[in-house]
Amino acid sequence: MAKLSARNRKELFRATKQVNEPSSRDDIMWLKQTYAFMSDGVILKSRSIKYKPDRYNPKGRVQNYGWKVAGKVKPMTSDRLDQNIHHLESKGYTIKKGAKVTW
Hints:
This protein is mostly beta strands. The chain has one helix spanning 78-90; strands at residues 11-19, 28-38, 42-51, 61-72, 94-97. A hairpin with a 3-residue loop joins β2 and β3 (42-51). The longest helix has 13 residues, at 78-90.
């Protein structure tokens, strides 16, 4: 499992997309995928699933699979970073910029 604050890296921005009715399985209410783009070029991915209520969990349950390394990119300029953000927004992702990043 990857660590968000490893080796003094900072989070540049986070992209989140939630699908309310995934068509692959009947027992899932929603699926949320989050990507964290880090200052050292590492992209981390987290996946959360909320299952429908059943006999044993009347309120349903949320399963979080933790942070995994999804890939690595070369260091980007601020213009390239803005292009990536706009591309993710056009794909339906919600963007949250890191608190310590200046553009």
